[in-house]
Amino acid sequence: MAEDIVAGVLRQWQQVHPGLDTGPMAVIGRLNRCSALLQQAADAPLRREGLTRPEFDILGTLRRMDRELTPGRIARETFASGAAVTKRVRQLEARGLVARRPDERDRRVAHLSLTPAGREVIDRLLPEQLRYEAALLGGIDTDRQRELSSALGELLVVLEGRLGSLLD
Fold it and tell me: Are 92 and 98 in contact (CB under 8 A)?
């Protein structure tokens, strides 16, 4: 197996500080590097559609939850700020992909839903995006992908618990 860039960095640190435990750097460095590379590569089908990943996430959230949602709920589901969601929803609304309905009791609250055009875009684009993402992972066999997913799930639970309590 070829050596990744983080392995070289770890080796350099071991030469400078032989007793240093670089184990955390091995994990977090690789996760950061993978994240950066995936962000560059993983959105090609979305870009062809003229969507950003955050816009795709809003469309996907509305589709998978299959009901009207408030911008606040979308923000929680997509891990975005309320202001960011509002901006993206305006853009999606201008493109005719999302509809906004004011709340009958509180006019400050909006209820968002997919338009027929928005539903068509997400239903057409999601399978294409998943095929593309599967191709990105094609060098790793299915069992190893499941193991990796499981390990990342464990890490995510730990981080959400620890970081959530730190940020509250």
Answer: yes
User: How far is the C-alpha of 133 from the C-alpha of 111, rounded, in Å?
Assistant: 31
Rounded CA gap, 168 and 166, in Å? 6
The identity of residue 82, as a single letter, is: G
Q: Which long-range contacts (CB under 8 A, 24 or more apart) does 20-28 make?
A: 27/155
Give Cβ neighbours of residue 100 (< 8 Å, ≥ 6 apart): 89, 93, 110, 111, 112
DSSP conformational letter for 4:
P
Q: What predicted TM-score, i.e. pTM, was given to this entire model?
A: 0.82
Please list the residues that pair with 98 across neighbouring strands: 114
**pLDDT tens for residues 81-115?**
989 999 999 999 999 999 999 988 888 889 999 99
Q: Give the closest residue to 82 by CA, choosing from 106, 110, 43.
A: 110
Q: How many helices and strands in the chain, by DSSP H and E?
A: 8, 2
The helix (H) or strand (E) run that includes residue 98 is: strand 98-102
Instruction: Indicate the SS3 state at residue 54.
Output: helix
Report helix angle 53-65 to 82-94, nearest 10: 90
